[in-house]
Amino acid sequence: MSGLDATGLSVSWRGTIAVRLLDLTVPAGSVVAVTGPSGAGKSSLLWALARALRPAVATVTGTVRVGGAAVADRDEAARCGMVLVPQRNGLTASLTAHESVLVSLLAIGVTAPEAARRVEEALGRVGLTGSEHHLVDQLSGGQQQRVAMARALALRPEVLLADESTSELDAGNRGMVLAALHEEAARGAAVVLATHDPEAAADTAAVLALDAGTATWERTA
Ligand SMILES: Nc1ncnc2c1ncn2[C@@H]1O[C@H](COP(=O)(O)OP(=O)(O)OP(=O)(O)O)[C@@H](O)[C@H]1O
Q: Which Pfam families match (predicted)?
């Protein structure tokens, strides 16, 4: 599997600097937490790492590498197995939980039987067995958050970028999602978790604290 490296990464939204000259290394097989108050730049950082910010809305400078290979744009990020779980989940209201996970697998060429197997497994890992055929619109905020996580897990990412993926969960479901993130790292993925939650950050290999876009390592591996 491949680790993630970013060097000199900066993000500015039409003149507002959100991330300043940040260096970040996440070895394969580890979970790194990114913490900081609201507006500190956590989402901007994750979107920039995923190369998901369009130049029309944000200016991103610096390099991102996966397994040592430079990642220039969103297509390259997808090809090298980067998966972003956005803060607002990015789900389609009119799809079921099952379909939400399935379409992303079919889109990358996973065969239908294998995709069906992975959907069932991923929804089970986040405690959604039995809710597969509910529309996203009929699910609670926390259930939607877990569907978004299941979709990422099913893709078996090399790099998993999770943005506040436990913010709407009760203690039991939060523990299940955090366990799944650590299992992904044990499989060999590089995992980045942006979080306000000190307990979620507690078990990670390292903690990068952001404050008004400036990063300091609160704890290193
Ligand atoms: N789409 C956008 N357009 C303009 N400015 C933005 C946009 N998204 C974020 N920003 C700005 O970038 C800065 C960092 O915001 P960001 O959302 O990255 O912080 P955050 O740490 O993820 O906050 P939160 O914990 O509230 O999600 C803020 O000043 C914010 O106003």
A: ABC_tran
